[in-house]
Fold this sequence. Notes:
Blueprint: H1 3-8, E1 20-24, H2 28-39, E2 48-52, E3 64-66, E4 73-75, E5 81-82, H3 86-94, E6 101-104, E7 107-110, E8 116-119, H4 131-136, H5 143-157, H6 179-185, H7 190-205, H8 214-226, E9 234-237, H9 241-255, E10 259-261, E11 268-271, E12 277-282, E13 285-288, E14 291-295, H10 298-304, E15 318-328, E16 337-340, E17 347-350, E18 360-367, H11 377-391, H12 393-397, E19 400-413, E20 433-436, H13 448-463, H14 481-487
Parallel strand pairs: 1-2, 1-14, 2-10, 7-16, 14-20
Antiparallel strand pairs: 3-4, 5-9, 6-9, 7-8, 11-12, 12-13, 15-18, 15-19, 16-17, 17-18
The chain binds flavin-adenine dinucleotide.
Amino acid sequence: MTCDEKKESTSATTSAKPKRMIVVGGGLAGLSAAAALMKAGLVQMGHEVIVLEARRRVGGRAASFEDPLTGGLVDACQHVAMGCCTNFLDLCKQAGVAGSLRRDRTLYFIGHDGIPAACTPSVWLPAPLHLGPLLLGMRHFTFREKTALALGLLRLARYNRKKRGTHVQKDSGIQDETAQTWLEFIGQPERVIRLFWQPVLESALGESIDLVSVVAARKVVVDGFLAHRNASDLYVPTQPLGRLFGEHLVEWLKNCGVTVETGRSVTAIQLDATGRVSAVRCGTEEILCDSLIVALPWKQAARLLPDIVPVGNEHLTGSPITAVHLWFDRDVMNLPHAVLVGRVSQWVFRGDDSQKNVPGYCQVVISASRGLQGDDRDVLLATVISELKAIFPAAREAQLLNARIVTDPTAVLSVRPGVEAVRPAAVTHVPNLFLAGDWTATGWPSTMEGAVRSGRLAAQAAGGSLIVSQQWQTPDLPKNWLVRRIIGTR
Ligand SMILES: Cc1cc2nc3c(=O)[nH]c(=O)nc-3n(C[C@H](O)[C@H](O)[C@H](O)COP(=O)(O)OP(=O)(O)OC[C@H]3O[C@@H](n4cnc5c(N)ncnc54)[C@H](O)[C@@H]3O)c2cc1C
């Protein structure tokens, strides 16, 4: 939707004198909050929406760095979305960048024999039966293992934490348990856990299966696989994130009247005598505002708002993700991506034609990489390269021109048992202060979709009193009758 179209559709509004709404943090959560306020027509009604971002570029963790060989942009870590990420995909559509997301319906799993298994869900069968061909395509599993996996998927989708009362962590009182504990409890074969559940859940949730909660795992299985034929489609950016969000998305916002200021670190939040936010401080400068959305990661949010985000809450822990960037002198991969099961390298992505700057750029992603953090960089590099050589014949001949290892120690919120209870909602006890960020209570793991949803929830809370008829969230993919029958509506 363009900004002009929106002007005509802002009829159902309440009259109000112009307000200034500040969003602190220009990651996807902050940008989506600003976009939602703008899309609701608030900017066109004369209200001011300002995004203040500390760094030189917006985009936050979905960011790029300069390619050392060519000076082009390379993503700090490959980001992918799935078909179930309806709010993220909708934001990309609104901003005109959806055309720069490649849709891969086939997932390529590569087992120890090095032969790729092309796993494609059916376009004809209704969900959840559409997954049949995908499971049958997993040639690294025996028929028995595939059957066990299919049953495991269904049992997880029907997981009911209340009925599992005897197996929850009684001592902590937390009604949840880890995915690994539960998968072992239902008797999933060790190979199925290691070669399916581990790579799939760890990459979707960014945390190891012995730590993630089974409730989070269920969300991945239901929303990302079973619920809809398009749910598991992979959306891979074909342009650097720094261009997509740092340039195109921000230009779109500015063209639609949103003010985006970079290099503006907010150092304090001021309350007035009535306990409402009156201003933010950027160093010595004071910027007055009528409402405030704080869209920062939890540590930075806790520094600014210690009364609202408790510092050192043990349930708010980060999980590390490592990206190994490799520049070869030639193309080493004959696939767009691959899931390398049972290896240190978990996913490998081939640089896209419009993104890569030398022919043989590829990136290996390792989620929940805390076990590697103390390791020698050269050892990790040698392991990753030898795994690629074992799989891709072209890598055996190729010359490595450059390599870079980037680890974000708190890449995503670790969605462990009990974490949902401490993720804060958008609304706070301060009437005009709202929270956003991928770690807040969205019901989603810490992802781009979670960030966009959080921004939209905060925008709804902040702008809902000014504009009354607005659909702030994009609906989930619809569940057909068979899905509802088998797994319910949750
Ligand atoms: C290595 C890695 C791999 C990932 N892979 C995927 C993936 O494949 N798919 C997926 O969906 N998600 C992935 N994610 C997660 C995704 O990047 C995040 O969930 C999302 O970008 C979070 O957005 P956010 O706006 O909540 O936070 P952030 O992106 O962290 O944004 C917060 C912003 O606030 C700014 N800021 C901080 N302090 C201040 C201040 N005082 N004043 C003003 N501004 C401030 C920061 O500079 C930053 O720009 C990955 C993350 C990482 C790190």
